[in-house]
Amino acid sequence: VQTKLPAVGTTIFTVMSALAVEKKAVNLGQGFPDFGCDPKLLQAVTDAMAAGHNQYPPMPGILALRQAIASKIAALYGHSYDPQTEITVTAGATQAIITAILAVVRPGDEVIVLEPCYDSYVPNIDLAGGKVVRVPLTPGTFRPDFDKIAAALTPRTRAIIINTPHNPSATVWTESEMRRLEELLAPTDVLVISDEVYEHMVYAGGKHESAARFPGLAARTFIVSSFGKTYHVTGWKVGYVAAPAALTAEFRKVHQFNVFTVNTPMQHALASFMVDPTPYLELPAFYQRKRDLFAEGLAKTRLKLLPSAGTYFQCVDISDVSDLDESDFCQWLTSEIGVAAIPLSAFYGDGFDQRVVRFCFAKKDETLYSALERLARL
Ligand code: PMP
Ligand code: GLN
Fold this sequence. Notes:
378 residues; alpha/beta; Aspartate Aminotransferase, domain 1; 4-stranded antiparallel β-sheet; 14 helices; 40% helix; globular; binds glutamine; aminotransferase; Pyridoxal phosphate-dependent aminotransferase; pyridoxal phosphate; Aminotransferase_I/II_large; transferase
């Protein structure tokens, strides 16, 4: 077959999770919690099914859930989205991102991605026939470099994809960085896809700077989030997109043909569950404790910790521990030490190796302790 995606193999997350199972390693690679969600959320699913919510929901999602999403965004970020015309429920952030890209990127359009970036962005742009323009985040700090972004803008630029809190680096964009982006794009008609799936995981009292807070950005942005991250249910694959009505209309043209609708009982359960803000308001403290517990243990090894300001990831510099490249190191760590991690090189098109790997700390304390016990051998 003539392949449309010659550079694509199996994702690093799948590869490392499979190796972790094979080697009986503690899996701190792929990002997902190893603990359950709130039992009230499970009960809400059972109740929704028992109440007969088992047929197709409306194409953009059930209204109650869209209303709950709009209320949350208004309360947290001060921007009002119309649930009828500006919010769409998606099959996770993954489907939200590819749908937004297919909806607006025409063959030959340039799309800027900031590397390192999540692995689905580039193949998504390729499928749309767009031209990927890779702009590196500042080496070492992973902060956006606005001179480089400005230099990458051309009359062919259709969109830029941003991600804060950032997977894999665990950095969080500041208000002034978001303002810089808003100012930079002001004279252009460039669209933004803002991947905010880790919006509720920002630590040390920091603030999530949603694109919704910035009127000049909100007017041109598809904001993407995912309930999988927020409510510890990554396998449910339910997320959403908030975007101005004109963009949402284009989004839904694709959405109705690539997924049409998202499963009904989960939507009802989420709609009733998310009325109470407590779970997501408590999430930073919940994960910060895990981050700190894990960091305290790692500090006793020769792995050097990078800052983790958000997400459920902790990156470490391996250069004092090993001469292997990141990818080989992760294979070795999984096989020989019994802890799976993800090489940052997987988030770069050219496999750039900076001797840094990513651990996920969305795990039971006992899982983290067991990983730390093994890592103590390093
Ligand atoms: N974007 C980023 C940055 C992610 O880390 C993830 C989850 N790994 C996704 C998108 C996809 O989210 P979902 O599981 O809801 O499709
Ligand atoms: N987003 C998760 C991560 O970065 C993995 C999701 C996936 O397996 N595609 O680890």
